[in-house]
What does this fold into?
Amino acid sequence: MQDLIEKASLALGRGAPDDYKITPTDFPDKLKKYASELSAILQYSSFQEKAGRYEQHDAVAIATQAKFKGFAHQATWAIGCAAIAGSLLAALAAAKKLDPNDLVTSYLLFALGFIATVGGGFAVYRLHLIKTEKLLERWMEARAKAETERLGYFSAIASRREDLNQDERNAERYSRTADILSNIAERHDDVIVVVNEGKNPAIIIEYVDAVNDQLSLEHRQWTSDASEMSSALSALEESISDSHKGESKEH
It folds into this structure.
């Protein structure tokens, strides 16, 4: 168990700076050393196509998010600068001690007015771009598509894992069936002897029934070898035993 945990840790990585990024197209190569069976499965086209669609939508979502946030931050700063400049402009204009004919005062008032105007206009322009380009809607749409593909990808992995587990259970059942048929085959010569001696010709039917009975149970969930020994097999053994008893009495 500790070895499996260690392999899982190595396969997933330990504290990598970019481990928050999900790049499923890289999973087969990253897992090849420590999880070769899973790596081989993830190379199937069904997984690779889902992974490619996820990464495509994820890239669009990230780019649109960055653009939306960039414009929003710029608009926020522009509005802030315009508000501060406008407040200072109003305060200075209301000050009675300022000489409007003074060159420095004129430049200061002009600069504050310019900052307030340009800042306000720039903020309006950025907000206009956010709205007309539908950056928020495109970001949300791309993110929704990416998450849908991501969910589909990992759901497919989970489904494939269940299929593998089912294959293992089937293999175990088939192995048990083979063991039981082998036990029946041990009686093959005894059946031939009884048939050749003509003591119980019907035993061949019981023998065939015992084999068919096990084959019909092949896909059932059996719990133990004892329960798998069907009544047909028991009947076959009883018939063989009775035939041998009859032979002993004749002698």
Summary: Residues 67 and 115 are 24 Å apart (CA to CA). Residues 135-185 form the longest helix (51 residues). Residues 186-250 form one domain.
